Amino acid sequence: MRKFVLAALAWCGAAAGADMPATTAGLSGPWELIGAYREHRDGSRSEDYGATPSGTLSIAPDGRYALQIYHAERPPFAGEFRAAEAQEYKRLLLTMSAHFGMVAVEEGRLVFRIAAASNPQWDGSVQRRAYTLKGEVLEWRVPPRPDGDVPISVWRRLR
Questions:
Q1: Where are the alpha helices (DSSP H) in 49-146?
Q2: What pLDDT, in 10s, does the model give residues 13-58?
Q3: Is the pLDDT of residue 6 over 60?
Q4: Is residue 113 within a helix (H) or strand (E), and if so which, with residue range?
Q5: Cα–Cα distances in angstroms (integers) from residue 117 to residues 74, 112, 151, 156, in the given order
Q6: At a CB cut-off of 8 Å and minimum separation 6, what does 25 contact?
Q7: Separate counts of helices (H) and strands (E) for the chain
């Protein structure tokens, strides 16, 4: 996983480098996922990636970033990965989220310029996300899903 993060950071620097001045507002460094929720229209929350999801976020001082989130319970494929059933591939895609590119704080919001993502609809997109930073805990809200639920990611800075 570390090799993926390092390769993604190097690639996105080459692909997106000079397009955006990096103002990371003290967010640079490594982060670990401590919560992944979905907020429903009534304000209640439920777990989005299981009780103990795992994830990593790395933000370079110049704004390059790489992010990965994995569901707590990801069953292995029944057989060989490349010979899996369509349902197994669907489950794989729905139990993880990964993207990399450039991130900056602009007008009080996190702005992700996504070079590539596990969801190809996000490739090349720009997403603005409300966020809070309280001490060593970073939380942001992802744009609402088609059902109206709002994913929330919560990260703790690693020292």
A1: 86-94
A2: 444 444 444 588 889 999 999 999 999 999 999 999 999 999 999 9
A3: no
A4: strand 109-117
A5: 19, 11, 16, 22
A6: 105, 133
A7: 2, 9
pLDDT tens track for 89-109: 899 989 999 999 999 999 999
CA atoms lying within 13 Å on the CB side of residue 119: 12
pTM reported for the whole predicted model:
0.82
Q: What is the pLDDT of residue 43?
A: 95
- Sketch the domain layout of the chain as residue ranges: 2-148
CATH code of 2-148, in short, is 2.40.128.300
Q: What is the largest CA-CA distance in the chain?
A: 49
Main-chain dihedrals φ then ψ at residue 129, nearest 5 degrees: -135, 130
Closest CA to 23 of 100, 99, 102, 101: 102
| Identity at 115, one-letter amino acid code | A
